[in-house]
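Database export, one record per block. Field names are fixed; values are copied verbatim from the stored entry.
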Amino acid sequence: MKVALVYSSKAGMEATLPPRPEAPKSEEDEPPLPPDMLAECDSDETIAAVGQVLRERHQVVFIESDDKAFGRLKRQRPHLVFNMAERVVGPNRESHIPSICEMLDIPYTGSDPLTLGICLDKSRAKEILSYHRVPNPAFWVVESPTAIPAGVRLPAIVKPLFEGSSKGIRNNSLVHSLGELYERVEEVTGAYRQPAIVERFLTGREFTVGVLGNDPAYEVLPIVEIDHAQLPAGAAPVYSYEAKWLWDTPEKPLDIFKCPAPIPAVLAAKIETVVLRTCRVLRVRDWARLDVRLDEKGEPNILEVNPLPGVLPNPEDNSCLPKAARTAGYSYSDLIHRVVEEASKRCGLRPTRVRPAASERPAVHADRA
């Protein structure tokens, strides 16, 4: 098949952002971009790794998810889009490329625009899960520090309403007082220009769970536990931006992940059940990673749903979906090919292996024309 790998590179997405000052000169000026603004974008290493795997079986074109993506997809007319595009700004940013694919009648991997949009807007996902009685922490959406409702239960986690990859979740995001809550809501709404979601903090163990396939044949991968005891002394027991990107590095990795999680079979079954219910309720397709935490009674609650999971290729990078897949016996290539196979089957495609042309350039940005 001819497969278009559509991605959001850090350099490519940075070029789409309007320039902002390093520091505002007045209250009317735009605040500087937060340091984790591009955290969800993929590195050139990850884009190249996925492309290399796809080339094992298919002809591959690389397409940046910028404002030229529509024209490139229309010209290339691939049999399938392998969608990794996160984009940067707005509650519907992850829905942009799938929406374009549907306009052009091009099949694509992963969930549809509606599911992607719902899962990115944490409050909408939680409302739907609550309706279906899927356990998740109580929450409040707060537009500004002056609009904090009286019923907020502390301690609580404060984070941007529609972000992922721990964007906006810092070591100080766990708040214990109204003063801390006010300050953190002010920081989040100011830096990310969106509402904050304030979520009751659950004190139990934390897990992340990878899922492959489609309903009714989802495959739940081995559960990964996030061991907060491995964080630096005094750190909040949350998987924060600092934990994910600053304290845990390839040069000095934190031994924070346990896969398979050392938990009783009864608890593993409970976690798998709530994960599968969530995937079915939200109509997740092909692949996903779901974050789960136990409440004070030891019952699993859904924290977040990630229908565009990260797939960093190197084991040292502690990317949780590839980690779970390796534990299940999948190589990195197996994982990427499995996603293509699931999407192809779902879309009625017959993936044929095509040897790339000898002249095909290996550069990540090969389809810039």
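Remark 1: The first helix runs from residue 10 to 14.
Remark 2: Confidence is low (pLDDT under 50) at residues 354-369.
End of record.
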